Amino acid sequence: GNSIFLQLSVKGGVVVNITGHGTGGNENLSIEECETKAHNFANDLGFSNMYSVWSAQNGDIVYINLAPIINRTIYYPDLVKVKINAKTGGIVGVDATNYCYNHVERTLSTPKLTFDDAQKLISPLLKVEERNLALIANDFVGETLTYEFICSWNDYVYYVYIDAETGEECN
Fold first, then answer.
1. What is the pLDDT of residue 54?
2. CA pair distance 123, 86, nearest whole angstrom
3. 68 pLDDT band (50/70/90 cuts)?
4. I want to staple 164 with a disulfide (CB 3.0 to 4.6 A). Which of 58, 103, 111, 144 is the partner?
């Protein structure tokens, strides 16, 4: 009973954008339940190997960022963003623009640094909670293979990206 705006790509008919809203409802889904719905919906749309890399809730709306993970590497340039109304359980938004622009088959180089070498380069004040291999977009053009460190300090969360080739902090 709600209206949505749907944008498809001319080439291949891929969903690029869905915009809508949902009102009412009393499901009250958890963030984890919304992540599962987002993953299943993205899979139904043809976005495969997608995993939740970030989520947050603001009021009734849960925002979920999905990225493909291929050969244990997170491909952030290919992000798909999904919005779910936790009260209705309905998908109220999808932004697959980055995926449509960037998702191509890539051959990644082998990292010159190890996870442990890269971890030594971040501040010792940060407590590493999780570490991943991640492809990230450069500021202007291109992509960089990095080690992603999800860290905590004083109840704050920090994401630190170390270039897997040079050891430089990228972000």
1. 94
2. 37
3. very high
4. 111
Closest CA to 154 of 123, 132, 131: 123
Q: How far apart are CA 96 and CA 67, in angstroms?
A: 10
**d(Cα 155, Cα 64) in Å, to the nearest integer?**
22
As a whole number of angstroms, the distance between CA 119 and CA 164 comes to 11
Of 44, 46, 50, 41, nearest to 85 by C-alpha is 41
Residue 94 has pLDDT above 90, yes or no: yes
How sure is the predictor about 3, in pLDDT bands with cuts at 50, 70 and 90? confident
Assigned token pair, 104: 């191509």
Q: What is the DSSP annotation of 76-134?
A: GGG-EEEEEETTTTEEEEEE-HHHHHH-----PPPPSS-HHHHHTTS-TTSEEEEEEEE
Q: What percentage of the chain reaches a pLDDT higher than 70?
A: 97
C-alpha pair distances (Å), 123 with each of 52, 96, 126 = 27, 34, 6
pTM score: 0.89
